[in-house]
Specification:
It is rod-shaped, with a radius of gyration of 29 Å. It is α+β, with helices and mostly antiparallel strands. The chain has helices at 2-52, 63-77, 105-110, 145-154, 187-199, 246-253; strands at residues 80-88, 91-101, 116-129, 211-213, 238-241, 257-258, 267-270, 297-303. The protein folds into two domains: 2-129, Pantoate--beta-alanine Ligase, Chain: A,domain 2 (2-Layer Sandwich), CATH 3.30.1300; 145-295, no CATH class. α1 packs antiparallel against α2 (63-77). Strands 1-2-3-8 form a four-stranded antiparallel sheet, with helices on one face. The chain has a four-stranded antiparallel sheet with strand order 4-5-7-6, with no helix packed on it.
Length: 313
């Protein structure tokens, strides 16, 4: 009986430590999952910022470093420490160990004192673009006199009267290295520019409508990656103005335009473009249509099986 009792006592303590180890392992897995999901979610936020405010060379330098910081933060919130972080493309793999550990006399006697729960997890940011590839465009960034005359006539103005204001955006298209490729904007956007300029007087030196960006081509550099290529500016139906005065906002309210992104109030897109989806909003100062990317892209943040190196096909 003494032998049996002794064996049972040892087994009990062993099972107790095994239970603690299992709990630590579960805690570690929770921390790892939270860290992996946080990294992918952070990347989603970076992509949203990029589409709203494009950078010439795609995602900002250090994006994976900031995703690592997010993963580390969520690992700590779940009582874990991030021990390894790998990122490539839109996938992340993390390894985490628990802050808690096995300790005490029983753990010492079993030789497992100091053991921590360890786990790994892998996440992916899914990006399903609802827009097709942007149309291939080319040609001169400025419009010919004949083309401008056609636009004026289509909008009810006399082409012979030379009614375009001095420095009209239609006559001063810039190469893509500067940004405003007016020549490749859709005709409907040319019509909008004409109507705005006819309604607004020239603002000081130059035209009433000063564009920072028009249609962008992949040759401009940095517009060919999977995120930047789907920006509204690549579809010929959006432009960004240098400033939005009170007069400009009032005039723009009468045009078939929307401001698709609250965070980018100088970007205007045509009402019928995919990013606006037929909707317009109040275009007064501080009242930009609070759009989203819902009509452009579906995002999914998910845990995936940890198979092979991160970023492998």
């Amino acid at each position: 009986m003494l032998v049996v009792v002794a064996v049972l006592v040892v087994a009990w303590f062993w099972l107790l430590e095994a239970g603690k180890a299992g709990a630590l392992r579960a805690d570690g897995q929770s921390a790892a999952d939270a860290a992996a999901l946080a990294a992918a979610t952070h990347l989603q936020g970076e992509v949203i910022d990029l589409v709203r405010n494009p950078l010439p060379n795609g995602l900002a330098y250090g994006v994976y470093g900031r995703s690592r910081n997010a993963a580390d933060d969520y690992a700590r919130r779940n009582d874990g420490n991030l021990t390894r972080f790998d990122a490539a493309r839109r996938e992340f793999r993390v390894e985490v160990e628990t802050q808690g550990q096995l300790q005490g006399g029983t753990a010492d006697r079993l030789g497992v004192s100091g053991t921590r729960g360890e786990a790994h997890s892998r996440s992916r940011l899914g990006v399903d673009w609802l827009l097709g590839p942007p149309p291939a465009r080319g040609g001169s960034p400025s419009l010919s006199d004949g083309r401008i005359d056609d636009i004026l006539a289509r909008n009810g103005y006399d082409p012979e009267a030379d009614e375009l204001p001095p420095g009209s955006a239609l006559e001063s298209g810039q190469p893509c290295s500067i940004g405003a490729d007016v020549g490749n904007l859709d005709d409907e956007m040319h019509d909008v520019i004409v109507r705005l300029e006819m309604e607004l007087p020239p603002a000081g030196v130059g035209a009433a409508v000063v564009l920072d960006d028009g249609y962008q081509t992949t040759s401009c550099g940095g517009w060919a990656d999977e995120f930047n290529v789907h920006h509204p500016l690549n579809y010929g139906s959006a432009f960004r103005v240098a400033s939005t005065t009170q007069a400009f906002a009032v005039a723009a309210s009468g045009q078939p335009l929307c401001r698709p992104f609250t965070s980018d109030p100088r970007l205007f897109a045509h009402r019928d473009s995919d990013v606006c989806d037929g909707r317009t909003g109040t275009l007064g100062p501080g009242q930009a249509y609070g759009g989203s990317l819902d009509h452009m892209v579906d995002f999914t943040v998910e845990l995936v099986p940890d198979e092979g190196p991160v970023g492998a096909p």
